[in-house]
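Sample entry (197 residues):
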Amino acid sequence: MQPLEYYVHPTAEVEQDTQIGAGTRIWRQAHVRSQAIIGSQCNIGKGVYIESHVRIGSRVKIQNNVSLFEGVTIEDGVFIGPHVCFSNDMYPRAITLNGDLKTADDWMITPTLVKYGASLGAGSVIVCGVVIGEFALVGAGSVVTKDVAPHSLVYGNPAHFHGYVCHCAQRLDKVKEEDGQCIGWCSSCGSWCKFKL
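Predicted structure, serialized as tokens:
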């Protein structure tokens, strides 16, 4: 482990062989497994579980009781609301074909990527194998089963597209899509938002 340039609550468990960036705070009853990587200036809430090999960027806010399993990568600036759960196996079973309890070698991990600046609403479930684009916004309680385009607002079970959002997370007006690019006006922050689809 690195020198203690970060804070770990006395009730949290951080296993050896983790990488944690400066200024990160890990709160009550969180559990960070070995070989997880967490960037700088992150806030890891109460009861968060971060499994081995999970990669988390910098300035990420993870609210209480989130579960991040092996195969998940979170880029910088992502918000993860309370009780969000990521899966990592498309065909989960507890036992092998001959009835033995599966070991780590029996799992087939399917990776998931949450890109820069995206936000995941409270209680959403992220089915493995998806990419959630930059500054996308997933509504609370949604079940994400397919890729989410940048700046897209999705919600529901399964989550469906319901428009585009600005960097400030408010819905864009006057949206035009052309040649793989999108531009829209945000009346909330008073700016144009332009991005690639």
